[in-house]
Every structure is written in C-alpha cells, then in structure tokens.
Amino acid sequence: MQLKTAQFTKNDIAKYPFLKAATKYMKIPDLKIEDLTSSELEGILERAEERVEEAILYARVSRKLKREDIEISSYPAAIVLATATGSSFIKKRYALAEAKQAYEDLKDEPKEKILRFAQNFAWKLMLNENSEIPFEFMLGFTSYLRNTTHLRGKKWKLINRLLSSGNVYLTRNETARLLSEEIRRHIEKRLDVEELPKFPTEIMNIAEKINKLSVEKIGKAEMEGFPKTVVQTAFPPCIEALYQTVSAGRHLSHIGRFTLTSFLVNIGMSPENVIDLFKSFSDYNERMTRYQVEHIAGDRGSRTRYIPPKCDTLKTHGVCVSPDELCQMVRHPLRYYRMKLRQ
156 is in which domain, residue-wise? Predict the structure, then answer.
C-alpha cells in the first residue's frame, strides 16, 4: 500500500525555497526588483548576496532555518543578483550549489516527504512494494532519462538499471541525486534571461562585487572552462607557430602579437608570463610591452579583456598556417583549444 505524501511545512520551504509552495510564504508576494533596495528588506538582500557568494566559494549554499522568512525570500533575490552579474559561470555555479545542498538534505528526508517533493516536478515516483527487490523507489523512465543526461558513470546508463513496466528502480540516495539534477535544471532555467532588465544601482554594485570575487577565487580562464595550467599541446597550428616564433625572438607582425597575447591570457597564462615571452625581441621595451599586454588582458584601460580574432580574419592576414583536420571544424582559436583539451 502506497504511503500518503507529506505536506510541506514553512521550515521545509526555507530548506527548499524553489518549490512551488514557496509563493504563499513570501514576505512580499509580488516582490519586484526595485523593492530589494528598500531598507525594510536589507536582511533579505544581504542573505541573497551571501547565498551567491557561498556558491562561488564553497559550491554549496548553507541553510539558515531559524530565519525562515528571510531564507525563503532571499532565494528569488539571489536569482536576481546572479542574473545581474551577467556571468554564465556564476549562474551555473549558483544553480549547482543549490542543487548540491538539496541533495544532502533530501537523502535524510522520510519517504513521504520525498514523494511529495517529486510531485512538485510532476515526477511519477512511487514506492517499491516488492520486498524481494532491494530498492525503495520506482521512477518513470522518461523522468529518469531527462535527469541522467549529464550524469557520468556506468550505473546511470539505462541498460544497467533494473527496469519493469516502464519504471526504473532507485535507492533513496539515487532518487535524491536525480531530484537534485531536476532542481539544478529548474534554477538554470530561471536564470536564463535573454534580455537583462535595468537593475537598480545598488543591485549592480553588488553584482560587480560578486563578479570580482569570482575572478579572485576562481580565475577568468577556469570560469570559462579552461584548466588552471596552459596545455601547449592543445594549441591550434597558428598559435603554435606564433609561439615558436616569439620564443625564438623572431619578428612578429602587429596582428601576430595581438593574436598570441589575447589567446594566452584567455586560456589562463598570467600577463607577467606573457611579457616574459617578448623579452627576447631586439626591440623589446618593458614599459610599452607591459602596457599592451595588460591592456589586452583587461587589467588596464577599459578593463575589457580582448579575445583573439576569428579564423577567417587570421586567414586574411596570413596568420593561419598549416591547418589540420580539427581546424576545419572550428571558426575560432579558442574553440580549437577547448576541443583539443577534450580529446
């Protein structure tokens, strides 16, 4: 006999503020972006900022359940702050951090609560009543497939699962893991805004502070999916040729210098190390070289980090040399580097 699903308490909503039932517990039901800067909601905005910062620093968002009202309302406020950063890394990091914490909490919930939680996302989750099968839950295979797309490990492949009458058998931990994946996708969808609204100055100031924290703790290159160390064997042929030319102290054209410098700073090489590369040039001028490299890296001037030219532009200027098979599949040197790293 199936257990009845449990009802969510206010404390549950504070723990899982992304549930649909959270709307009736909101301190201000129709909360608007401009309301967040009100002195009355100062605690909510502070906690929202803390949520996003915890995601960046620890890849987990803590739960402060003694302040239920603030905890519930700070979630949509955190969505606003993460969106205002304009950083795809921060948005993905925040969604993942909330999902990770939810997983840790869900593992310890009673079966009735897990069933209720699954209903929130329209899952067809049921208890396994066959005592001879060592699994607690059964999940419709469509919901299963939707939430195992990004999960690695042979155990998640459908061919390796116990399947009966369209249902996949799951342990409690596996169920919590798949629910956390549903949460991650749900939050990422909320953060996926094509056109950003005009945010109040105070919100933008906090967003800028969060962006700076990300760069300090994570690094620009790693935020964009590049490893911490530069992998020369993954350089596209054009960049490798430029790199060898500068290493030998031979002359490089202006676009050659710009292409090499912008490529290296974008994949994580420090401006200082890039500057060292140019020291063997006969016309080396440290002050000028430092200014140019730091300007391209976004450490000077407009604070905009420049990216290398596209492949078509490099072909036009004769920088594209010895293209290989992978070159035929990409339109940009950084794309080549990413694909080569995966290989």
Answer: 109-173
